[in-house]
Design goal:
Distance between the termini: 14 Å
Helix content: 25-40%
Number of domains: 2
Shape: globular
CATH topology of the largest domain: Hexokinase, domain 1
CATH class of the largest domain: Alpha Beta
């Protein structure tokens, strides 16, 4: 069975032809990335992709969207597109569709990806549990959070959450200062403010202020690059501080969700930090849960390195909803 898998964010919409075999195995073709700003709507982007594929597409589509799903209209935070699920079949000319939250799609990818698509970060170096709850989170423009439950019969179910919006809890004086900085502009500070790509600038400014240094505003991407390449000690300290906070948040999410079968870090930024997380304070912070430190140390924590988890997961979600499973 072939279908179109689409992963839509604020800046890009990625399209691919996916195939799902009778045994549930999923294969992706070569993805095409379109800029949302270059298209008036999802439908016009769909039509452009259709032309790229010679004018015809499979009559099935799986959408991964960066935002809540459900209701009569799906809106995007960072692009002007809207999607009306009731019109999907007629507007796109498809027979069946699935729409999932972007991190629900990532959780589907975690459930179905082979073991070689994961890198070990901390905890016992063993596979994710074949039964139980697995927590999935990842920093990017925001902080995505989901979880999946694997049953003894090999089936699984995914739950999307808005866990990125729980309150940030500082653990030391530096994080106290980071919280105070964010409170100047936000009455309530969520973990997404501190553990997402745009947080690197405020973290950097807080650290600079502690040392009495003046810093100029700069592009977040440039700051991340300098920090990860260790070309600037203050930027590198901001990256390390980010990794500490991510470890704390990942441990909190695991406790809240009962993700004792494993924790998976995902997201574009999570992938770019793959060399930094194992040598940072991420692991110590993940385990630092007081009376539950021993429990936390027994949880395998992985990083998913699949090149297109959103597309792979959207196809997996379609297969699960429409009865094609491994």
């Amino acid at each position: 069975m072939d279908l179109v898998a689409v992963d839509i964010g604020g800046t890009h919409a990625r399209f691919v032809i996916a195939s799902v075999a009778a045994d549930g195995a999923i294969a992706l073709g070569e993805p095409e990335t379109l800029h949302t700003r270059d298209h008036a709507s999802f439908q016009t982007a769909w039509e452009d992709f259709r032309e790229m594929q010679g004018g015809t597409l499979p009559p099935r589509v799986a959408l991964s969207v960066a935002g809540p799903v459900g209701g009569e209209v799906i809106r995007f935070t960072n692009n002007p597109w809207i999607i009306r699920p009731a019109l999907m079949n007629s507007k796109l000319g498809v027979e069946a569709f699935t729409i999932v939250n972007d991190f629900a799609a990532v959780a589907h990818a975690v459930a179905r990806a082979p073991a070689d698509q994961f890198v070990h970060l901390t905890g016992p170096d063993q596979p994710l549990a074949s039964e139980g709850t697995i927590s999935v989170l990842g920093p990017g423009t925001g902080l995505g959070v989901a979880h999946l439950y694997r049953a003894a019969d090999g089936s699984y179910r995914v739950t999307a959450t808005e866990g990125g919006h729980i309150d940030f809890a500082p653990l030391d004086s530096i994080e106290d200062a980071i919280l105070a900085h964010f409170r100047k502009s936000h009455t309530r500070v969520s973990i997404e403010r501190v553990v997402s790509g745009p947080a690197i600038g405020p973290i950097h400014r807080v650290l600079a202020a502690m040392e009495g240094k003046a810093v100029t505003e700069e592009d977040d991407i440039a700051l991340w690059k300098r920090g990860m390449e260790d070309r600037d000690s203050l930027a590198a300290a901001a990256v390390d501080r980010f990794c500490l906070s991510l470890g704390s948040v990942a441990g909190d999410i695991a406790l809240a969700q009962g993700g004792f079968g494993g924790v998976v870090i995902a997201g574009g930024l999570g992938y770019r930090l793959r060399e930094h997380l194992p040598v940072s304070g991420f692991a110590e912070r993940f385990r630092a849960k007081g009376r539950f430190a021993e429990l936390m140390a027994a949880i395998p924590v992985k990083l998913i390195v699949h090149p297109q988890p959103g597309l792979f997961g959207a196809a997996a979600a379609f297969a699960a909803e429409h009865g094609v499973t491994a």
